[in-house]
Amino acid sequence: MAIRVYRVWEGRNIFFIKWRLMFGPDARLLVITLLLIVVPIVIFCTTVARNLLHEFPTYNAGYVILVVTILFTIYVSLADSFSALLTVVLVLLFLTSACDPGIVPRNSHPPEEEIDSPKLQKDVVVNDFVIKVKYCDTCKIYRPPRCSHCRKCDNCVERFDHHCPWVGQCIGLRNYRYFFLLVSSSALLCIFIFAMSALNIKFVMNDHGTLWKAIKESLASVILMVYSFIFFWLVGGLTCFHLYLIGRNQTTHENYKQGNKQNVYDRGCFRNFREVFCTKTKSSRYNFRAYIQEEKPMRIAQEVKIDDEEGDGRTKVQARNS
């Protein structure tokens, strides 16, 4: 009996709404990520922002602050996950978490050359440099350049950067830009919340005379300042690190393995940034609505199936006999 593609998958990914949403095996952590974003924003809007409305009655600047906060919240939340708790679809966390990160299709059987004369790796030419690509015993393929097998999801992912438990998904070729936008927007949001909370304490101190009295009167502002300060160093540091990686056209995985060795994918800072932010996201190679006509030795998952993508069209790759 024919089974739809999304019902059959050997990896550990989880699917929802039939074939439409695909997450990693640790998707439950998205709830924590969502709470870390939403809870401080709710506290800010109900305490600090409300107080600032009264401090700027003439020019309605307080309303501007409140609107900016809400827009920032929507923008950042949308970058990493989705939730029925929010009235707007969380597009960015959603795009990062609920899509195929660039999974390379598996083979049902090893390639003929692997059966005849098994090799663990072979040479390919990338941008006039010879590099070695490894054979994946799990996926039964020679991994394309910049591809790595994620042990958490049990998939080979094109341009694999890392597996992020906070978004419950691998970060790869198809969702890297959304991940970066999520992280950088979170850093900007932390700066905004910290600055507005400090401003609120200043206004309260003007009314009560001393800093100590202002702190007791606006304890929520102090908590938000500490919270945003701590998280700014986390997401701000991550933003700076990924700006460095983008400038070199390097992934986190490559940086960990290669360090400062020669990077064959570096095309210059400007072209590297353009490659990440100004190129069209490739379509998935899987049609989740298609039927599997022949029986395959794969387990039936809850709602688990994966998109996939092979090769990076931005990099010229040529096979070479080894």
From TrEMBL:
UniProt EC number: 2.3.1.225
Coiled-coil region: none
Membrane topology value: Multi-pass membrane protein
Domain Palmitoyltransferase DHHC as annotated: residue spans: 134-258
Compartments, record wording: Endomembrane system
Alphabetical UniProt keywords: Acyltransferase, Membrane, Transferase, Transmembrane, Transmembrane helix
Transmembrane regions: 29-49, 61-78, 178-199, 219-245
InterPro entries with a match to the protein in the record: Palmitoyltrfase_DHHC, PFA4/ZDH16/20/ERF2-like
The keyword Transmembrane is assigned to this record: yes
Annotated catalysed reactions: L-cysteinyl-[protein] + hexadecanoyl-CoA = S-hexadecanoyl-L-cysteinyl-[protein] + CoA
UniProt record, GO biological process: protein targeting to membrane
A GO molecular-function annotation: protein-cysteine S-palmitoyltransferase activity
GO CC term, one of those recorded: endoplasmic reticulum
Domain of life: Eukaryota
Entry domain remark: The DHHC domain is required for palmitoyltransferase activity.
Similarity comment: Belongs to the DHHC palmitoyltransferase family.
Protein name listed in UniProt: S-acyltransferase
Source organism per UniProt: Populus tomentosa
Organism classification: Eukaryota, Viridiplantae, Streptophyta, Embryophyta, Tracheophyta
